[in-house]
Hints:
The structure holds 2 protein chains of 2 kinds.
Chain A: H1 15-24, H2 26-48, H3 50-55, H4 71-76, H5 79-95, H6 98-116, H7 118-123, H8 129-159, H9 164-167, H10 173-178, H11 182-201, H12 204-224, E1 233-238, E2 248-257, E3 260-268, H13 273-302
Antiparallel strand pairs in A: 1-3, 2-3
Helix pairs in contact in A: 1-8, 2-5, 2-8, 5-8, 6-11, 6-12, 8-11, 8-13, 11-12, 11-13
Chain B: E1 4-13, E2 23-31, E3 35-39, H1 46-53, E4 61-66, E5 78-81, H2 93-103, H3 110-119, H4 133-146, E6 151-155, H5 163-180, E7 183-188, E8 200-205, E9 208-214, H6 215-220, E10 223-228, E11 237-244, E12 247-253, E13 263-265, H7 269-278, E14 285-286, H8 288-293
Parallel strand pairs in B: 3-7, 3-8, 5-6, 6-7, 9-14
Antiparallel strand pairs in B: 1-2, 1-4, 8-9, 10-12, 10-13, 11-12
Helix pairs in contact in B: 2-4, 3-4
Amino acid sequence: MTAPGTAPAPAGRPGGLVRTVARTHRTALALALLVLAAATAALVWLHSLTDEARAGHSACATPPTDRLPSCAAVDAITADDTYTSGLSVTVTLLSWVMFPVAAWAGGALTGRELESGTARLAWTQSVTPARWLAAKLAVPAALLTAGTGGLVLVNVWARGDADPDLAGDWYYPDVFVSTGPVAVAYALAGLALGALAGLVWRRALPAAGVALAASLLLHTFLERHREDLWPPVTRTEAGSFELPRSALQVAWADSPVNGVPLTRATFHPESHFWPLQYVESGLLLAVAAVATAGAFVLLARRLP
Amino acid sequence: MTDTAIEAAALGRRFGRRRRPALDGCSFRLPAGRVCAVVGPNGAGKSTLLALAAGLLRPTDGSITVLGQAPAASRERLAYVAQNKPLHPQLTVTGTLRLGRDLNPRRWDAGAAERIVAEGDLDPGARIRSLSGGQRTRVALALALGKRPELLLLDEPMADLDPLARHQLMATLMADAADRGTTVVMSSHVVAELEGSCDHLLLLGGGRVRLAGPLDDLLAAHTLVTGRAGDPLGPHTVVESRTTGRQLTALVRPTGPLGDGVQGDRPSLEEVVLAHLRSPDAPPLLLDAREAAV
């Protein structure tokens, strides 16, 4: 109902909704930014330790020779321990982003709103429930993509060409998740699962619990079956051989055939990092898409 | 603009297959510009009816149209205040009103909303969680009126207000509604609070419409009869009759002149409502259908 002559505000502009989502979830936004800043600072600091850490992990000799420093001197350097444990904490946190996101999305983003009735308050303003849900998902999704993606880039930069002995190999579960696009996909899947749980349970606490449980299940399942997501390389040779450095071994068999010792190794070389990342990201994004579609269908079925 | 605010046809809503329907076969028509009271005992279906009109529930039977459209299509033109007055506890009063502005970009009247908040001496910077129930009601009403609705749906709006605030807020509400010709539908089980402000009545009981129509017509259709026990009430429709000793008191819908020796009085709204609540089997009286046909 707009009087002729007055210019109607464009209905398609979602600015108001975006502002509303940001305002109602200000605490979560502030907390997320704080964590992002702290993690970035920690990674920058760890990066500055790289050279020292390498020195603390180098080969040594007692007594020292021309080429090798003395073992006592190398032992005295503690930067490598700090570097290793610091990196392992940050990559673990980065690979667990999904869990707090899922619990928050189920609890605060949708569950609490439906429980307290503030969702109904929004639906009786001038926005449709579908647009409300779209904004509720799109705003955190955009921020999560930017934040997690940025942190992954900082993480990759901070690790540099880090010694796998110090920083962990590419196939370590936490390292794998936190050094590629799959980190973002995990965060988005957590968001979608949480939002769906909130709409299904309509109460904050059970929704947060269910979303967290579903995320744990998904995370564990993918971690356990990561090596099956891309066909591994099989190498069969007479006698024994060594796998290349940084290969993820899937299976190893020594079996003599006709009296000749034969070794058969199945493994993922480091070059499989990207295909594995893409497949896992694809699966997670598919989960996120299905959960999002489910949330919209549920909302449309429940409301006229 | 249509002249019908709400029209329901055989409207029904069931929650779960085994439970009694919350609303069952409700048909009524509410003309625009009225202030309608929805009364009934607890569990009569008042909140369900308001949620259906607000487009928050899907009818399981029949249909309801609001302002000539489906409720979901009229979203922008109606305002709804739920019984528990949900608001975001972490926002301030100003933040809550800003939310109204952001979510109703084409309708928001900041002045009207701020006036209602100011009348209650509320600190605009106070967080919603720090407000009392009554103050929260005031903010919820400010949010609803700031939208400049054509239809205002209020579910037990005054339940947690003290008598003074109730009086004040009701006056604000009525003045605003009269100024803009807003249709107001308000549910309550306190009948006394409605008598001075409403001109239309919808009495629900057991999920059905018991009484519907303009208040004056409904009152005029009933007579409070006092006489001696044993007096014939003749052809009139008896809603309720009670005898105490030799005294007979009855609420009837007269179909002709009352007999000799019986005295007829005009009942109050409360007497009509209570008589109907006490006799759930009294036949319904729907005066709005006739009006719709004119």
